[in-house]
Design a protein that fits this description.
The protein is α/β, with parallel strands linked by helices and 517 residues long. Among the domains are: 1-138, Rossmann fold; 392-513, GMP Synthetase, Chain A, domain 3, CATH 3.30.300. It contains 13 helices and 27 strands. It has helices at 2-11, 27-44, 59-70, 80-85, 87-94, 162-175, 193-205, 222-229, 238-251, 271-280, 398-408, 438-460, 486-498; strands spanning 16-19, 24-26, 50-54, 74-77, 98-102, 115-118, 124-126, 142-147, 157-161, 183-186, 209-212, 233-237, 261-265, 285-290, 299-302, 312-316, 321-326, 329-331, 338-343, 365-373, 379-384, 388-391, 394-397, 414-421, 428-435, 469-473, 509-513. The strands form five sheets. The protein has a ten-stranded mixed beta sheet, sandwiched between helices. The chain has a seven-stranded mixed beta sheet with strand order 7-6-5-3-4-8-9, sandwiched between helices. It is globular, with a radius of gyration of 23 Å.
């Protein structure tokens, strides 16, 4: 990693590589900052130590991560809101002997862990008075630690391998034609695997310019940042795509015709997302794929493929093996559904605080996702293993229900099918949660829902069981990484059901019934 990082700096001594709303650093600037920061890391830590890194999304966060990598330490990248909400739990799980954080934030953590505080300009403003004791060593093959979203339980610290990180970055540099002219507005948190591993690091290693946007502070001007920067390589989740489109329409802004490539991720990408992306970025190739924090990037497909709007997520990358297994047996017949297993250099080699390696004897990771191969040899996702519900002996796919719901109306931003445990009798019932923005809610209820009722009933009748109840929610709860917080959504539903919130006109939840028109 050190050689690749140094090469990027040497190739751009006077050209901007990292920036945000406060700074713009050239390769020469970064090398100078590295010298002071590197000296501190070498005085305070040892090679292969875990070093926690937690900042707001900014250029100084990227600087800290790169510096730790370049000095052969292992950054444990923590979302700042997670760390602030539960500092003891998060610091304990990192095994880190040192925390790098932003000036002023260290006071909340320095009683628990030695802190090295940096200013927004990248200067060291506070350091531990004595050398911290080294807590644990990472394997030399480990590049960094990134935590999963924890949408259904406790997030896990994934040991991302150096070889896989660089192999994936090199593939994406070629795939997206990244280079010194590339400008990447990084608006997803780089605690998010897509932003870190498939946008920021490939752009930086290709010699391109990464501009960091704090979505919490700049949520109302995400799209204007893309326009102002003339950014050409953009990564979005479905929610931020819609926010950009709403800002464009509200402010009557032009289309971003300078954008060449757009990555979409973060759940179900449906035809409406593709339609919006084409309107907002008319000259861009739209990409989606399949990947996990545990397996950086597995497949890719772009908008030029006729199967892009379907459940297909593309063909495996050249260095990745994918198997769809049914009862442990790999299947190859089109449309035969099974569990998805992946193997390759980009697959994790272990988990932080775990002695077990979560791959089988052949090196395959069980992803927990379910899918099949289509006739074109592309992988298709039908949901999570835990999204297959057994109702009265019948297997029902929550993913298929969600997909049907989203396809019925442009007013529905997102959908999630839940299996709610029945208290009066053994078993579960299905509930469909739909997210409709507050400004579209009246339209949805007055003109949209009657037609949606009839359409959904017609679609759902082919299923052995389907949700009779639809719950309208203005904002789905999300994890700090931007993924849907399923456990929190279930809790919200159960609490609302208990308090009869449906009768409260000020509630953000509205309970609707699905019936034949």
């Amino acid at each position: 990693m050190k050689n690749r990082i140094d090469h990027s700096l040497l190739q751009a001594p006077t050209r901007a590589l990292l920036s945000d709303d406060r700074v713009q650093w050239t390769g020469h600037d970064i090398a100078s900052l590295f010298q002071e920061l590197g000296n501190a890391l070498e005085q305070l830590t040892e090679r292969h130590d875990y070093v926690a890194v937690s900042f707001p999304n900014s250029a100084v966060q990227a600087l800290a991560i790169l510096s730790v990598l370049a000095h052969e330490r292992v950054p444990v990248i923590l979302n700042l809101s997670d760390l602030k909400s539960r500092p003891d739990a998060w610091i304990e799980r990192t095994q880190a002997s040192l925390l790098l954080t932003l000036e002023g934030l260290e006071t909340a953590f320095e009683a628990r862990i030695p802190c090295l505080a940096l200013s927004r300009e990248g200067d060291i403003v506070k350091r531990p008075p004595v050398r911290p004791e080294s807590k644990a060593k990472a394997s030399p093959e480990t590049a960094l630690v990134l935590f999963t979203s924890g949408s259904t339980g406790q997030p896990k610290g994934v040991l991302v391998p150096k070889a896989g990180l660089l192999t994936t970055a090199d593939f994406l540099i070629d795939y997206f034609s990244l280079g010194p002219a590339t400008v990447a507005p990084v608006m997803l948190s780089i605690c998010h695997s897509m932003a870190l591993n498939t946008q920021f690091l490939p752009t930086f290693l290709a010699g391109g310019h990464c501009h960091f946007i704090n979505p919490q502070l700049e949520i109302n001007r995400l799209y204007r940042n893309i326009l102002d920067l003339r950014g050409d390589f953009v990564s979005l989740i479905g929610e931020t795509l819609l926010i950009c489109d709403e800002e464009r329409r509200r402010k009557k802004l032009p289309a971003a015709d300078h954008v060449r490539h757009v990555q979409l991720a973060g759940g179900l990408i449906n035809p409406r997302h593709l339609e919006i992306a084409r309107e907002v970025f008319p000259n861009a190739v739209i990409h989606k794929g399949y990947g996990l924090t545990e397996a950086i990037r597995v497949t890719m497909i772009d908008s030029r493929d006729p199967n892009f709007g379907s459940g297909a997520v593309g063909r495996p990358l050249p260095f990745v093996d994918v198997e769809v297994r049914d009862g442990g047996r790999p299947v190859s017949a089109p449309s035969e559904i099974g569990e998805i297993f992946v193997r390759g250099p980009n697959v994790l080699r272990g988990l932080l605080n775990s002695a077990s390696i979560p791959v089988d004897a052949q090196g395959f990771l069980k992803t927990g996702d379910v899918g099949y191969w289509n006739a074109a040899g592309q992988l298709c996702i039908t949901g999570r293993q835990d999204g297959l519900f057994k109702i009265n002996g019948h297997r029902v796919s929550g993913f298929e229900i969600e997909k049907m719901a989203i396809e019925t109306s442009n007013l529905i931003r997102n959908a999630k099918c839940l299996a709610i445990e029945e208290t009066r009798r053994a078993g579960h019932r299905l509930v469909l949660m739909v997210e409709v923005p507050a400004d579209l809610e009246a339209q949805f209820l007055s003109t949209g829902f009657p037609a949606i009722q009839a359409d959904l009933y017609r679609r759902f009748r082919q299923l052995p069981h389907f949700p009779k109840e639809i719950v309208l929610l203005r904002h789905f709860p999300r994890t700090s990484n931007g993924k849907l917080a399923v456990a929190e959504l279930t809790r919200l539903y159960l609490e609302s059901e208990k308090t009869a919130v449906a009768a409260n006109p000020d509630s953000s939840l509205q309970f609707l019934r699905l019936h034949a028109a």
